[in-house]
Amino acid sequence: SKIVALENQKLTNFLGNYEYYRQKRNEIIQIEEVKPREKKEKPEKTQGDNKKREIKRIRIEEEISVLEENLKILEENLSLLGQDYEGLQRCLEEETIIKRTLEDLMEEWCKYS
Description:
Elements: E1 2-7, E2 10-15, H1 18-34, H2 47-81, H3 85-112
Helix pairs in contact: 2-3
């Protein structure tokens, strides 16, 4: 399952159940509390910086799209494996890796959006 949280005009995807969302959300809150409250002035971004960010965002979106398609195919294959427990185990391990990678990419995508 997947939970999408909207906070401070920012969408964050959490791949997992509600308990996973609560755990990750608490971790984020703890990290934010540790960060210094003062924000440093950021230098103005040039048009070249904006173009680089856009290119990076598009590449991340492409990676996310490929991984989501792989995850869909993997989930379809899970139902076909039936009693093949070794095959099921391999697919479940691959599914876990893909979901974690997707989560990381979505967090990175948020930085560039």
